[in-house]
Amino acid sequence: MESPSPTPTFHLFPSLAPEIRIKIWAYVASTPRVIRLQYRMSSRKREKDGRTISNFIGWYSPDPRPAMLDVSREARQEGLKHYQLAFGTINFHAPKTYFNFKADTLRVGAAPDARRPPADPKWFSDGPDGYLLDLLLGGGPYGGDDTEKVLYLIVDVHESLYVRRSFCWDEVRDFSRLKEVTLIHWEGEIEVPPSELLSYSASSLRYVLENWPSWVIPKIYARLSLDGSLLGEVSLKDSDGMRV
């Protein structure tokens, strides 16, 4: 059995001019990532009656924090110019997730083990988690902060959305700076044929726009979960003749 090749190491990095090192750190920090967001609960049993009480304790990401924040003081200093702690709940829970709003994509509703990019079929193993956008945007002790800063979003479409006339758009439009959103349709969770998903999404989008005509629509793409294949871009012209 062949031993694995050693990881390349550039031993002279500390000897580089500071301005070059800083450019390298800036490049590393601007590398796009897909960051899953989930919520965490704590449970305890009450002594008087043995009932289990669950408490919401905030939003977090199961994905690792940026490695450069732990490399050196210089790397951390430069990294914090790009990453910020985000998605706390105002006055209730501190933010726990480092996020670069200029480069990173927020993924909401992913299955616990769905860590890979859409092009990798291994990304799709367990189906979607419960729908979380309404909880994330709901305000109060459960609503996450900083959603107005998100530019790139992935939504794993939960089966409950297909019976909503507004689909997921009432929540998506609350991401006020959004440039691009990707919908992941899980084939095992839906009754709508894949060939009609673009029309279905576009028809519900048109319905929401009738009530919110000032909404500036981001780029919207749809993928299938089985292999990550791109269905295409969701366009209002695809809604012609399709009822929801």
Tell me roughly what share of residues is in helical segments: 10-25%
Q: How many H/I helices?
A: 5
Report the strand count.
Answer: 9
| Oligomerization | single chain
Largest sheet: 7 strands, mixed
**What structural category arises from helix and sheet content?**
alpha/beta
Domain module tally:
1
Give me the Rg, rounded. 21 Å
Mean pLDDT: 81
- Which regions have little confidence, pLDDT < 50, spanning 5+ residues? 113-127
Instruction: List the helices and strands in order.
Output: HEEHEEEHEHEHEE
Please list the strands of the largest sheet in the order they lie side by side: 2-1-5-6-7-8-9
User: What spatial form do the alpha-carbon principal axes imply?
Assistant: globular
> How far is the first residue's CA from the last residue's CA?
58 Å
Strand content: 15-25%
What can you see in these coordinates?
This protein is of the alpha/beta class. It has one domain. It is 17% helix and 22% strand. The chain is built from five helices and nine strands, in the order αββαβββαβαβαββ. The strands form two sheets. Strands 2-1-5-6-7-8-9 form a seven-stranded mixed β-sheet, with no helix packed on it. Strands 3-4 form a two-stranded antiparallel ribbon. A hairpin with a 5-residue loop joins β8 and β9. α1 crosses α2. The protein is globular and about 60 Å long. About 6% of the residues have low confidence. This is 2EXR domain-containing protein. Pfam families: 2EXR (PF20150).
